[in-house]
Write a structure and sequence with these properties.
With 296 residues, the protein is of the alpha/beta class. Helices cover 43% and strands 22% of the residues.
Length: 296
């Protein structure tokens, strides 16, 4: 099997979009199509179902994906192993949640690109629920997530920053002048939340459940930016990381509600597979991340 075809297959399996895959790989779309067709012909199996403009992995495609990851990983390690010992080359694949993509990592990515322009960075904004799986399966080299300190047999986790979670609302909200807000106060309120499975949403809901509280309306979004915008126009009370709302709070456009429940605190951390070879390129990225995110 041609490694270039496997690399194309991997990117298409992650994006499920021929146009996006072509953009990430620097190909024209017809090249992606031709490589996938050639790989399917060699294997004698259809790897993707084409449903109009949408595609999905077939069972054969799902079975091939972990093998493709292993083959590409071994090829990359072999290539780097015969390079100069301190040379940073190759491709680095990073995954992170929307919050960290937007508010933490741009400075890291910018500095790394300035320092190592010869390295190809593939960056995947990824839902929280998928990050650990992608690292475990080798689909990303490194992932960033915000949750409680991680312990997992196959994963190495390094904490970077403590993160506070706030309840925020528009200054016009009736609770903006309160001296304290308890779980029971939220019974008749509209609460703006992230996707199910998100660590801070889980902690917040545990506190509500323990108090026997069910808010009148709970609106779920897959974007922290959408939650923030809804809070700004007075739609309800948002539960968000401090870094997401710091600017709006300093400008007086949002206020932090004085939550009397248990503080919700998480840790921004980076994770990688314990068996992964820490190439010079990956080590350089880890070091730049530490320097930027952990500086006083």
């Amino acid at each position: 099997m041609d490694l270039r075809q496997l690399a194309t297959f991997r990117v298409l399996a992650m994006t499920l979009n021929f146009h996006q895959a072509a953009q990430r790989l620097g190909y024209v779309q017809s090249t992606v199509t031709a490589q996938i067709q050639a790989l399917e012909a060699e294997l004698g199996a259809r790897l993707f179902d084409r449903l109009g403009r949408h595609i999905t992995l077939t069972n054969a495609g799902e079975r091939l994906l972990p093998y493709a990851e292993q083959l590409l990983k071994i090829a990359e390690e072999a290539r780097q192993a015969v390079s100069e010992p301190q040379e940073c080359t190759g491709t680095l694949t990073i995954g992170a949640t929307e919050t960290l993509c937007t508010y933490c990592l741009p400075a890291v990515l910018h500095q790394f690109r300035l320092s190592y322009p010869q390295v190809r960075l593939l960056f995947y904004p990824t839902p929280f629920s998928a990050l650990r799986r992608l690292v475990t399966e080798g689909q990303v080299d490194l992932a960033f997530l915000m949750e409680e300190p991680l312990t997992a047999a196959a994963l190495q986790a390094e904490p970077l920053l403590p993160e506070s979670i706030y309840l925020v609302a528009s200054p016009d909200h009736p609770f903006a002048q309160r001296s304290a807000i308890s779980p029971s106060d939220l019974e008749d309120e509209t609460i703006l939340l992230t996707e199910a499975g998100c660590s801070y949403r889980t902690q917040f809901q545990h506190q509500l459940n323990a108090a026997g509280v069910q808010p009148a309306t709970m609106l779920e979004f897959d974007s922290v930016e959408a939650i923030k915008q809804c809070a700004l126009v007075g739609m309800g009370i948002a539960v968000l990381p401090a870094i997401v709302v710091a600017t709006e709070i300093s400008q007086g456009r949002l206020v932090v509600l004085p939550w009397s429940g248990e503080p919700i605190c998480l840790v921004t951390q980076m994770i990688w597979h314990k068996q992964k070879w820490l190439s010079p390129t990956l080590q350089a990225f880890l070091q730049i991340t530490r320097q930027i995110l952990m500086q006083p």
